[in-house]
Design brief:
This protein is an alpha/beta fold and about 250 residues long. Helices cover about 40% and strands about 10% of the residues. A 5-stranded parallel β-sheet has the order 4-5-6-7-8. A 3-stranded parallel β-sheet has the order 1-2-3. The longest helix is centred in the middle third of the chain and has 18 residues, at about 105-125. The radius of gyration is 17 Å and the shape is globular.
Length: about 250
């Protein structure tokens, strides 16, 4: 049984004390691949270093997280863009809009998002979208652009899910699926086409039950897979097979 964690910030400082042990726990638990989304200029080096240390099991993506969009966002994008000519990435990400933490810079978040979507179109890469309290807005911004990708950590409503899937895009789900209060999310995922769902952890954030409130890591994706197996009424191994195949198709792995 192999699993792909499609979204994990394993280069985070939170893993500095035991990063290699954490990676080995992930591999021992059945992880085949762990995909690393970039955040900002500072995360580029640690992300590349981790990928280079585990080339068979780590793949990186390049982008500017909406939470890192500041007044100098254009200069930052100018520094990030050349990396696509230097290395092979599986996606443009993590990009998007976050209206939970900040709304005052929405125009800048929108511009940064659309510029990076253009990168994805130019490079024929998928996008990995952060959509906290902004899913419908992002879908409106995408319009008819022929971009492929995934809305990571999707906790939107059925209408938003339908719009995503009608576009041929995917939804990613992690530890939030296991939370007791999130029965509506489980109900929604029970109705989604199984060929449009991928698993993720978003480590070190959003650890699943029974680790909620602690640091998340890729090995804990098994708890997400088990919950999704209950939701779908199939075995954990079937969930891992379906979602890993979806990830391979989305990211052309």
């Amino acid at each position: 049984m192999t699993i792909i964690d499609t979204h994990a910030h394993l280069y985070s400082d939170q893993f500095n004390a035991d990063r290699e042990a954490m990676v080995q726990r992930a591999l021992a638990s059945g992880l085949e691949l762990m995909l690393l989304p970039n955040i900002d200029l500072d995360s580029v080096g640690p992300m590349h270093q981790l990928e280079d240390a585990h080339p068979q099991h780590m793949r990186s993506m390049m982008g500017l997280h909406p939470g890192s969009v500041e007044s100098d966002w254009q200069e930052v994008l100018e520094l990030l863009r050349p990396w696509f000519e230097k290395r092979n990435y599986v996606a443009v990400g993590e990009i998007g809009i976050d209206l939970y933490w900040r709304q005052d810079n929405l125009p800048e978040q929108q511009q940064a998002f659309l510029q990076q979507v253009q990168w994805a179109l130019e490079l024929d890469l998928p996008v990995v979208i952060h959509s906290r309290e902004s899913c419908s807005l992002l879908l409106d911004l995408l319009g008819d652009l022929p971009v492929r990708g995934v809305f990571h950590c999707f906790t939107g409503n059925s209408e938003e899910a339908k719009r995503i899937i009608d576009r041929g895009m995917y939804v990613g789900i992690g530890g939030v699926l296991t939370y007791k209060a999130n029965q509506p999310v489980r109900d929604l995922f029970s109705q989604l086409p199984r060929d449009r769902v991928v698993l993720e952890t978003d480590a070190p954030y959003l650890a699943p039950i029974p680790h909620r409130g602690k640091r998340n890591e890729s090995a804990y994706i098994n708890h997400v897979a088990a919950t999704l197996a209950d939701v779908w009424g199939i075995s954990v191994s079937e969930v891992c097979s379906i979602t890993s195949q979806n990830a391979k198709e989305l990211f052309r792995l």
